[in-house]
Amino acid sequence: PAPSMLSLLLLAIVSGSHALLRGACGSAACVALGGGGGGALLKRPWCRLSASAPPANAAPERLGARLGAAARSRCAFMAARSSAATEPLPPTLLPITFSVFAQMIGEGIAISSLPLHMTLLGASPLEVGLATSCFSVAQMVCCPALVSLSSRFGRALVLRVCLGGATLSSLLIAASGSTAGIVTGRFCAGVFAASVPVAQAAATDIVSGPQTARALSRVSAANQAGVVVGPAASALLIALFASCGVAPPLRLRCAFAASAVLSLAVLVASVLPGGRRNAESVAAAAAREGA
Asked: SS3 letters for 99-127?
């Protein structure tokens, strides 16, 4: 009797170990292949239930079956999440990122070239610091208000207002030959420098779930791309205007005028029929999010 009981115990241990290994292999395979399509993944043999039912009196086998079912559930969840994350982002996100990029190019030009330009105009270090700080102060005060207004009147409308403010500030700097005009233009730029948080809010209205991180990363990339491209564009434009015979005091002012033209072009494109349809899509997504 003792050897028979020992044989049964060994048989139960072997059966339970087999079920545990089967569940572990299924979980590992699902995690390893989580980047593929969900439908094809669920057809893998290690993600299917075994056709043979466990013995009623084999507790380790039942435990292994439960663990295998949990592994298969996780497999299905990972496959569905991976499939949703790899879907393309909606096209309504493109004009939002263009708006951020257009405004941040002007900031890149100002950060890189404006202090030198003001020094050439005879500005003191205090005036140069004032022109730099007034932008940040105005942004700190006005940005939360603009984000709140975007929740009430629509993200697309506030983005257009920000683009209009960026155009106005660049034109003020381009048309001004004095330190006071440049400081006024930088303050105006700070008042309307809310395109990044408004665009992030619009991105979260358009997409949801696993796509949210990708959409926010697109907005952040557009922001950083504008800051990176701005100084290079400023240098290229100044060199271009120098080759065209433009006087040195007017070269950076012409670069700000070019930045204003870019912001105005994106603003005009946003109010055309295609841009209005995108704005309506963003507004509908925001309404669904609020509901």
From this structure: HHHHHHHHHHHHHHHHHHHHHHCCCCHHH
State pLDDT tens for residues 156-204: 999 999 999 999 999 999 998 889 999 999 999 999 999 999 999 999 9
- Give CA–CA dist 177/157, Å, rounded: 32
- Measure Cα distances from 159 to 70, 86, 179, 275, 290 in Å: 47, 28, 29, 12, 19
pLDDT tens by residue, 139-153? 999 999 999 999 999
Residue 196 CA neighbour count, 13 Å, CB half: 18
- Check if the beta carbon of residue 163 is closer than 8 Å to that of residue 195: yes
DSSP class of residue 42 equals T
Report how far apart, in Å, the C-alpha atoms of 11 and of each of 50, 60, 79, 212 are. Answer: 19, 10, 35, 51
CA distances from 25 to 19, 53, 72, 116, 291 (A): 10, 19, 10, 64, 43
- Cβ 23 vs Cβ 71: under 8 Å: yes
Measure the CA–CA gap between 57 and 114, rounded to whole angstroms. 82
Q: What string of DSSP letters covers 178-238? A: SHHHHHHHHHHHHHT--HHHHHHHHHHHH--TTHHHHHHHHHHHHHHHHHHHHHHHHHHHH
Residue with tokens 């140069």: 128
CA-nearest of 134, 33, 105, 142 to 255 is 105
Q: What is the pLDDT of residues 6-53, one digit of tens each?
A: 555 555 555 555 444 444 444 444 334 344 444 443 444 444 444 444
- What is d(CA 52, CA 48) in angstroms, rounded to the nearest whole number? 12
- Give the pLDDT of residue 42: 40
Buried b (16+ CB within 10 A) or exposed e, 57-83: ebebbeebbebbeebbeebeebbeebb
